[in-house]
Amino acid sequence: MKLTEKRSTRQAETRDWRDRDHRHYLHPFTDHKALGARGSRVITHAEGVYIYDSDGQKILDGMAGLWCVNLGYGRQELIDAATAQMHELPYYNSFFQTTHPPAVELSSLLASISPEPFKHTFFTSSGSEANDTVIKLVRRYWDLLGKPGKTVIVSRKNAYHGSTVAAGSLGGMDEMHKQTSVLLPGIEHIEQPYHFGLGAGLGEAEFGLRQARLLERKILELGAERVAAFIGEPVQGAGGVIIPPDSYWPEIQRICRQYDILLIADEVITGFGRLGEWFGSERFGIEPDLMPFAKGVTSGYLPLGGVLVSDRVADVVIAQGGEFAHGYTYSGHPTACAVALANIRILRDEGIIDRVRTDTGPYFAQRWRSLAEHPLVGEARCIGLVGAIELVADKTSGERFAKDAAAGSVCRDFCFDNGLVMRAVGDTMIVSPPLVVRHEHIDELVEKAWRCLDLTAGALGAV
Ligand code: PXG
């Protein structure tokens, strides 16, 4: 086939995919009508840190899929692990006094890489289900201890803990809450530790303490006898990569201890190496009681999530609680567990997390922070391999663009069209590349980001 014929076949195929996509496929978190008018971008394959669309464009995946493809695409060991497990035992449940090797191996391996008090895992298929599980574990814990009044979970505005009714209630996304007529009762939200957005006039350390003490104020307002737990992402992801000041987490920890409140670190994004440690909690010195996880546990190759349960909770709920009436058909799915095992072994044996901490993370920080010099950027922040830049209309005053300028979306579209996935959360641009990025990929990411900021500034008339 001649090149021109190949191209027109590909174009016809793309048109057909777009057309049927609109007619049949309802995408998550998407305005269906608007997408139909514009047409989806069809991603056909991926290799390493790049994805490819049906027009043949090669795009650097600055978001590791959706914060999950930590090992990058095309790792043969993960494919082999899934294939072998499917031959051996593709599925079996563990409801009725059975188990299987992949779930045993994975829960043991998780215990060995987790902080000391975590020896048990409850498996789910997603982060949302993990957080639903957390809610049940927390309430069961206090109930068994004879404190059934301790039911309230304090979360934060703009937190993301998932999309089921319970996990969505736990999160602090206003738009989601507005569309959900039934929200779970007993969840309270305090303001987040977002220094750029909320810390005007305050130093980082002082601001961190002030935001942490909002928890104390909430506990005193409700009465400690009603408060069961506090939940937070070590670094908020979907909310715009909110990196708390160093003073924040130790103060949260103090407050939880003082008022006898369980501490839950949602590790769905920060788990499995994103911040240069196995868990984000370790990076901040947090000692949580429960750690929900998902995403990076399989590098996204198969859906798997779970909750790491510390001895404090296990000794009550598991040792004294009788049957824990909770579980999913796919809890401990053998094929997903086999892929997670292969994924974690590669992260460990290839020293990928150490590399994030000592090499790629620091290099990323140095390159990413250089974006702060761009006229459109009010702040460039990062930690491990996750980063954010704040788009501003006026660099000196930090004034934001008008909402209808949709600066973030404009920038995001320029990025996609110019070979880079960088996500927009309002006017905050965020990246979270695969943990296997090399220096040259980081250079490419930052150079493309700079160029797309230029294009955005031009389009918005900001230069
Ligand atoms: N907790 C955290 C911290 C998350 O980031 C979930 C729980 C829920 O996981 P599941 O597997 O149920 O999706 C998440 C998911 C975004 C975006 O726009 C982020 C997530 C999901 C979808 C979109 O950044 N994080």
Please give a structural write-up:
The chain is an alpha+beta fold and 463 residues long. The protein has two domains: 41-74 and 352-459, Aspartate Aminotransferase, domain 1; 76-349, Aspartate Aminotransferase, domain 2 (3-Layer(aba) Sandwich), CATH 3.40.640. It has helices at 3-24, 32-38, 64-67, 76-88, 101-113, 127-144, 165-170, 174-179, 195-198, 204-222, 248-258, 280-284, 311-317, 334-349, 352-369, 407-417, 439-459; strands at residues 43-47, 50-53, 58-60, 118-124, 152-156, 187-190, 227-232, 262-265, 290-293, 305-310, 377-383, 386-391, 423-425, 428-431. The chain starts with a helix and ends with a helix. The mean pLDDT is 96. 3-[O-phosphonopyridoxyl]--amino-benzoic acid (PXG) binds at residues 66, 126-128, 131, 160-163, 233, 237-238, 266, 268-269, 294, 305.
